[in-house]
Write a structure and sequence with these properties.
Length: 271
């Protein structure tokens, strides 16, 4: 197994039940899919897209971030600060809630604004945060109902309930304090959207990694003395293949709910 790098994440993928192991395998396969086409490079972030077997494109953004996998895992997994962190990565985020329901498994609700004149969207989804055998960290999301947040079925809803087909981050350590971060997203917004909204919003989602990079860059600038847990970078030859997650499904072993509280994050100042 792999040593855990932050409380709240699965440290050995052999712990995963079969359905979650498949979600992880599908996500990693998509991250390394050979059919992505490069759209553009924006602020040193490479933006890619590819068609799928539906009419919904898959968008990917890749950038180097000056943070260790520990720091990124902590950024993604802290329920208390999740709404603040979501707003940092995605300025369209309005509100939301994150609740831990198992070892590395979270139940989430999030609402997002769209351009003026277009009804905002909201989503309910599960999130899995896991450390892979090469010390990379994956945080993956998919649609899952949450009874505490039912769909708004009024004639003029405040939010239209969308569907997250696949979304998430993969942080791959490059140096002890730097990661290559990939963000992948495929969403069905449901309802009607003007074509121009789709063309603007989809590429902008890939820039979540740019905003993540800028946040940690500013954090270092304002807090240069911040102690930084370092990545464990395995000695490997260059390999473009997906990391070996060594997934050993255990379908008969459900995730055990945790009764431990999450550690309090160290005091930080806003960038």
């Amino acid at each position: 197994g792999v040593e855990p790098m932050a409380t709240g994440a699965v440290a050995d993928t052999s712990e995963l039940p079969e359905p979650l192991a498949k979600k992880l395998a599908d996500f990693l396969e998509e991250v390394y899919h050979p059919d992505f086409s490069k759209l553009q490079t924006v602020s040193q972030t490479e933006v890619y897209t590819r068609s799928s077997n539906t009419s919904l494109p898959i968008t990917k953004g890749v950038a180097d971030v000056s943070a260790s996998t520990y720091e990124l895992q902590k950024f993604w997994s802290e329920s208390k600060n999740w709404a603040k962190h979501m707003k940092i990565a995605d300025p369209m985020f309005i509100k939301g809630k994150k609740q831990r329901i198992g070892n590395g498994l979270y139940q989430n609700y999030a609402a997002f604004a769209l351009p003026a004149g277009v009804t905002a969207r909201d989503f309910t989804f599960h999130e899995l945060i896991v450390t892979l055998n090469d010390n990379s960290v994956a945080a993956i999301c998919w649609e899952e109902p949450w009874k505490d947040y039912p769909m708004d079925t009024s004639y003029f809803p405040s939010y239209i309930r969308g569907s997250i087909i696949m979304s998430g981050y993969l942080a791959k350590p490059l140096t002890p304090n730097t990661c290559e971060v990939t963000y992948l997203v495929q969403v069905d917004p449901k309802g009607w959207l003007p074509a121009w909204v789709v063309e603007v919003v989809a590429p902008d989602q890939a820039l979540n990694v740019t905003r993540l990079r800028d946040y940690f860059k500013a954090l270092r600038k304002h807090m240069p003395s911040l102690r930084r847990p370092k990545n464990k970078v395995p000695q490997q030859s260059e390999n473009t293949q997906p990391p070996n997650a060594n997934i050993a499904p255990a379908a008969s072993e459900p995730i055990q709910k945790s009764t431990s509280s999450e550690p309090k994050p160290p005091p930080t100042s806003e960038p």
